[in-house]
Amino acid sequence: MSNSLKRVIITGEKQSGKSTLAAQLAAALKDKNVKIAGIIAKGIWKNNIREGFNLMDLKTGKSYPLAKRMEKPGKNSITGFEFLETGIAAGSRALNLEQCQDADVIFVDEIGRLEIKSLGWSLLLAPVLSIQSAAHIWIVRKKFVKEICSIWKVEHTEIINVDDKNALNRLKKI
User: pLDDT value at position 1?
Assistant: First the structure.
């Protein structure tokens, strides 16, 4: 992956395979000895229902429980998931400037509703974006792309839709 294009957003609808595509790209890059850092949130499924997420720290390869479905989300629930302290702490460590500084590619999965409301990974995004020597891969649901790009002043971004049959090949060429 060349660092000539610094920012890429993998997008698609809810549960369309964005994280799966990002994980495939991360594995392909790692196989080529590209230094990767950041996080990917892998869905946990039971009876075709997303029950939660595990967070993978791409630099260490370790996984942590990140979120579980709330049985009865309150009216103030933003996502319908309860976020777990171990996963939040692991994600914060993985997106720490020190952890990402020497990476060639930094992944952040997912940036969305929480970050728009200044929650989730929002406070970590600007510092990580300051690492100009790395390419940045963000996973963003289609309906949030414009707002996310506006909030974080992410111009000149390659947008790759998960539905593109050549998405993985396109990502490998960036």
Answer: 47
DSSP-assigned beta bridge partners for residue 132: none
Cα separation, 57 vs 39, in Å, equals 5
Give the residue carrying structure tokens 């996963």. 87
Q: pTM to 2 decimals? A: 0.91
pLDDT (tens digit per residue) in 64-88: 999 998 887 766 666 788 899 999 9
Q: Is 153 left (phi over 0), alpha (psi -120 to 50) or beta?
A: left
Judged by DSSP in three states, 151 sits in helix
User: What is the 3-state composition of the chain as percent helix, strand, coil, each rounded to the nearest 5?
Assistant: 35, 30, 35
Phi-psi region of 47 (alpha: psi -120 to 50; beta: other; left: phi over 0): left
Which DSSP helix (H) or strand (E) runs through 106? strand 105-109
- pLDDT per residue as tens digits for the range 81-128: 889 999 999 999 999 999 999 999 999 999 999 999 999 999 999 999
Q: Are 127 and 58 within 8 A, CB to CB?
A: no
Nearest to 66 by CA among 51, 47, 46: 51
